[in-house]
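STRUCTURE:
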């Protein structure tokens, strides 16, 4: 059985994700204020660019390794 990393063939990242941005307070309660944050990290696999990433058997066949 070949083991793979958690990123192997993962779904693409969502364009935004929910995050808490403080609280909405009333006289007798507080509710989390949720806002959408734009994903601005790298969506590409950067490990494949390293010497180890090029030969790592746990990356064999991964769709992200084959994408440019």
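SEQUENCE:
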């Amino acid at each position: 059985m070949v083991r793979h990393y958690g990123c192997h063939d993962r779904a693409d990242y969502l364009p935004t994700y929910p995050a808490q941005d403080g609280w909405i307070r009333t006289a007798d309660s507080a509710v989390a204020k949720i806002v959408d944050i734009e994903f601005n990290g790298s969506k590409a696999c950067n490990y494949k660019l390293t010497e180890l990433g090029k030969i790592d058997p746990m990356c064999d066949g991964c769709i992200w390794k084959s994408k440019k």
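REMARK: Helices lie at 51-55, 63-66.
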